[in-house]
């Protein structure tokens, strides 16, 4: 059984029901708790990133449409021209996929921020660290778990 979608699709992703206060956000031992101003700064930065990424995705979509339109192999195109067009199209597809993934991560960070789970490692449940999140606001793993993941990968 397939669930039907109702309503219109939202451009900005899921909207959380409630907004948690900064005091609910996890911090590592020795770190100062999140202030409302710091949480709002993180939220504003993530929203700005999401908007920038959406703009990039739109531009990439337009570029891809042009590449697809021009990929029919024009008169006089040799194999090198066709190969270059294919490489350019594949590169643009890869950039678009990366941008969509970054947008997903950014929107998820906003949801975690609003739910009060922002700053909690998705793997071990420990605090990620306020400084790490301020440097990389989409982080979902603490440094230890991220290092373990990179050694395995």
Tell me what you see in this structure.
- The chain is mainly α.
- The protein has a domain at 27-69 and 79-117: Four Helix Bundle (Hemerythrin (Met), subunit A).
- The protein is 58% helix and 0% strand.
- It contains 4 helices and no strands.
- The chain has helices at 36-70, 79-115, 130-135, 143-152.
- Mean pLDDT is 83; it is low at 1-18.
The CATH superfamily of the domain at 27-69 and 79-117 appears as: DksA, coiled-coil domain
Report how far the terminal alpha carbons are from each other. Answer: 36 Å
> Roughly what is the average pLDDT, rounded to an integer?
83
Assign a percent range to the helix content.
Answer: 55-70%
DSSP strand (E) fraction?
Answer: under 5%
- Rg, Cα atoms, Å: 21 Å
Q: How are the elements arranged and paired?
A:
Layout: H1 36-70, H2 79-115, H3 130-135, H4 143-152
In a nutshell, what does this entry contain?
It comes from Streptomyces odorifer. The protein is mainly α and 153 residues long. It contains four helices and no strands.
Provide key terms for this protein.
Four Helix Bundle (Hemerythrin (Met), subunit A), single chain, mainly alpha, 153 residues, disordered N terminus, 4 helices
């Amino acid at each position: 059984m397939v669930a039907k979608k109702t309503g219109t699709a939202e451009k900005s992703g899921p909207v959380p029901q409630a907004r948690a206060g900064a005091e609910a956000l996890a911090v590592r031992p020795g770190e100062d708790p999140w202030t409302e101003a710091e949480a709002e700064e993180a939220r504003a930065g993530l929203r700005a990133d999401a908007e920038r990424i959406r703009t990039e995705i739109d531009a990439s979509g337009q570029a891809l449409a042009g590449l697809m339109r021009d990929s029919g192999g024009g008169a006089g195109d040799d194999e090198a021209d066709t190969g270059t067009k294919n490489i350019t199209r594949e590169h643009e597809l890869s950039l678009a996929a990366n941008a969509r993934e970054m947008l997903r991560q950014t929107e998820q960070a906003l949801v975690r921020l609003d739910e009060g789970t922002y700053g909690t490692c998705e793997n071990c449940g420990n605090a990620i660290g306020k400084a790490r999140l301020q440097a990389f606001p989409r982080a979902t793993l603490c440094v230890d778990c991220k290092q373990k993941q990179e050694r395995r990968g």
